[in-house]
Amino acid sequence: MKVLVYGYGLMGKKVAHAVMNDTDLELAGVVSPVFDVQPEVPAYKSLDEVQDDIDAIIDFSHPANLDSILSYALKNKCKVVFATTGFSAEDLKKIEEASHEIALFQSYNTSYGVAMMNKMVSEFAKEFFEHHFDIEIMEKHHNQKIDSPSGTAVMLYDGINNALDDSLEPTYDRHSIHRKRERNEVGISSIRGGTIFGEHTVMFAGQDEIVEVKHTALSKEVFANGAVAALKALMNKDKGLFDLKTLY
């Protein structure tokens, strides 16, 4: 399978390396408007320059590139792994529409461990809630991360909320709220500091006891390897939109 990596920042470099080290994949090139270092494979400033036949794209770039990626993928029937953060509701709708014709994976976190964490907390959330446990979500990231809360924290909340029939309400800031915690409230807290790769904790707090489910990323390679694993899982999919909950 010939693969293009879109984006050649820190994560793009790691993804390109992961693709090159996978015996089932061939890194056909890298697409980026600028290159601080020259890759060992063909480098393109846009998809319009790509002449080779491409089977798949892994995107770790920017939401502004979505239209060109989808246009290219639909034209060439490519599979795409979208690991870019910051998509708008309109962007996500475009991805969903394209998935009627091609196989796409979209997630703000590509870690297999996060996929398993999401399954665990979604499965047990209802029982905890019915036994009067409060639910809180905490995430920590490096001091260069722009968005807050993280897409992964939102994904964990969505999974828990779906398990409880959309009866919950997220609370992102209690500074201006002068009242006790509501029964259906889920606090989502963000911490930014240092070089934290990523840490997510879901806490179930009951009467005199606390249960926590936590995932800690010890390097960025976990996300690069996860993106490659997601792409390989797409190999036998003709079309459809997949995420961490539905692909594995």
UniProtKB/TrEMBL annotation:
Residues annotated as binding NAD(+): D36, A83, T84, T85, S107, Y108, N109, T110
Keyword ATP-binding found: no
Residues annotated as the enzyme's active site: H141 (proton donor/acceptor), K145 (proton donor)
Domain of life: Bacteria
Pathway(s): Amino-acid biosynthesis; L-lysine biosynthesis via DAP pathway; (S)-tetrahydrodipicolinate from L-aspartate: step 4/4
Residue span(s) of domain Dihydrodipicolinate reductase C-terminal: 113-246
EC number: 1.17.1.8
Keywords: Amino-acid biosynthesis, Cytoplasm, Diaminopimelate biosynthesis, Lysine biosynthesis, NAD, NADP, Oxidoreductase
Annotated ranges, domain Dihydrodipicolinate reductase N-terminal: 1-109
Predominant location category: cytoplasm
Catalytic reactions of this protein: (S)-2,3,4,5-tetrahydrodipicolinate + NAD(+) + H2O = (2S,4S)-4-hydroxy-2,3,4,5-tetrahydrodipicolinate + NADH + H(+); (S)-2,3,4,5-tetrahydrodipicolinate + NADP(+) + H2O = (2S,4S)-4-hydroxy-2,3,4,5-tetrahydrodipicolinate + NADPH + H(+)
GO molecular function: 4-hydroxy-tetrahydrodipicolinate reductase
Keyword check for RNA-binding: no
Gene3D superfamilies the UniProt entry points to: Dihydrodipicolinate Reductase, domain 2, NAD(P)-binding Rossmann-like Domain
Cell compartment(s), UniProt: Cytoplasm
InterPro entries listed in its UniProt record: DapB_C, DapB_N, DapB_N_CS, DHDPR_bac, NAD(P)-bd_dom_sf
Alphabetical list of Pfam families matching this protein: DapB_C, DapB_N
Residues annotated as binding (S)-2,3,4,5-tetrahydrodipicolinate: H142, G151, T152
Family designation: Belongs to the DapB family.
Cited HAMAP family: DapB
Function: Catalyzes the conversion of 4-hydroxy-tetrahydrodipicolinate (HTPA) to tetrahydrodipicolinate.
Assembly and interaction partners: Homotetramer.
Protein name: 4-hydroxy-tetrahydrodipicolinate reductase
Organism annotation: Catenibacterium faecis
